[in-house]
Amino acid sequence: MANTSLKIAGALTLRAPDGSDLPVTDVSADLDLAENGLSDVVLHLSMTASDWARADAGGWFHMPPDQRGPTFAGGFLPDEPVEVEARLRADLLPGLAAVGASKWEIGAELKAPEAQPALHQTEAWVGLHVKQQRGGVKTGFSTLASGLRG
Fold this sequence. Notes:
By secondary structure, the protein is an alpha+beta fold. The protein has helices spanning 49-58, 93-97, 103-111, and strands at residues 2-15, 21-34, 37-47, 82-88, 125-134, 137-142.
């Protein structure tokens, strides 16, 4: 399996389950590309602490409280960005793979979905890790899904 990282966008807007916009920044993706095609996509993004509070309250990115591990070092600071890693839902992976075999074609679809608009919905992604920088340390939590693949 060949892993490759790709910068997607400095800023994007995702659609939350309640219909509101969720602005995210520093969006990148880790792609697992093999001879037989795309096998995994993990999105990395940041959001404000207040936007994370909305996502947290709504259990967005398939992260209800009962699917989370303990928060390392307490809660999140209100003035620092929160980073989220999330895996593309397995049922959406074939549609993304169908747009092309190159990382550039896949990256373009992640940035501006045409074939698969669901890619810009929070519920297309399953949260793996949520963290925040505190000095020289990142604090946060992992979800039960972080130990699963696909």
